[in-house]
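1st attempt posting a full record on here, be nice pls
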Amino acid sequence: MKAVIILAHWMDQQGHLDQETQDRIRLAYDQFHQIKADFFVTTGWNYRDDTPLCLGNQVAEVLIQDYGISRQNILTDNHARDTVGDAYFIRKNILSAYDVRNVVVVTSDYHANRAGLIFRTLLPKNIDVDVCSAQSAHLHDPATIQHEQQSTQAFIDTFRGTDTGSESSIYNTLRHRHPFYNGEVFALI
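the predicted structure (as tokens):
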């Protein structure tokens, strides 16, 4: 099976998705038809304190309402708090339940290299991972470039020594060494 994974960016209090996420959805829709994918995967948690809405659900709703995608062709996981979590929770909660052999990860151009590294590292090696990126205004922004470099190094440092072939080893690294999952920034998983 083939899946198109949409990495969402931001939403407002009412659940309206920002332009960057809208651009990613549009590209994902094109990729879905181009590769004849079986389903979309949407992801993202309730990261806002001022709304009960989850980012992954909002992306799914846009696919249904604006693009006419059937709900049966959309799988959603709302556990991820960042791209690392996207890869882990999609692996654990979605891909393991299906015979997925190919995924296309859709993100923005400035985030493509890091997203590719994360998904290729954390997904099982028998899954072919491609990354497709939407154009953004941030590609050449010095602060964005610096953030991506720092985040890439933080990923490498965090997962150094982790057996990425083992879901439990990845989980232990998240739970003990990743600040979004170990209680430092957000609640402990």
